[in-house]
Design a protein that fits this description.
CATH class: Alpha Beta
Number of helices: 3
Strand content: 35-45%
Largest sheet: 4 strands, mixed
Helix content: 10-25%
CATH architecture: Alpha-Beta Complex
Number of domains: 1
Shape: globular
Oligomer: single chain
Order of helices and strands: HEEEEEHEEEH
């Protein structure tokens, strides 16, 4: 059955969307990207994005990580599940955050990012997507760093 686009948009507003977020920590540094569009334009965030229909969540994490950073990776253990309905102004997004192991590539920006940069885990920028601070803190706890 075909659902018209406008009707589908109304349905989608009432259903949580699935997101994969990527936590890559190496040598006490975390990799962040600078968003180039709303929401949170000009804020730092973890690489990540929406899971496509029919796609495994870890595969989505690896795809999004590559698209936003230019680096290939392997998704590892789950950091956590983040499901606060108010965490994103676009609607109810449920994020599965994974530890990422970088496997190659060269850092570069994308159409979604204007910068890619490593930050010391003790010097996270103040202008960061609010919900990503919690993900980073949780990741550091898992790693025994905080």
């Amino acid at each position: 059955m075909h659902v018209p686009h406008e009707e589908w948009k109304n349905i989608a507003k009432k259903v949580p969307s699935l997101v994969a977020d990527c936590v890559c920590i190496e040598n006490d540094r975390v990799l962040l990207v600078l968003r180039s569009h709303e929401p949170f334009k000009d804020h730092w965030c973890l690489p990540g994005g929406f899971v496509d229909f029919g796609e495994r969540v870890k595969t989505a994490a690896e795809r999004e990580f590559f698209e936003e950073t230019g680096l290939s990776s392997k998704a590892g253990d789950l950091v956590g599940i983040y499901d606060d309905p108010k965490r994103d102004p676009r609607g109810h997004l449920v994020s599965l955050a994974f530890f990422m192991k970088r496997t190659g590539g060269k850092m570069k920006t994308s159409n979604e990012t204007s910068d890619v940069k490593w930050f010391d885990v003790n010097e996270i920028p103040k202008k960061i997507v609010p919900s990503h601070i919690l993900i980073i803190k949780d990741a550091l706890k898992v790693l025994g760093k905080k």
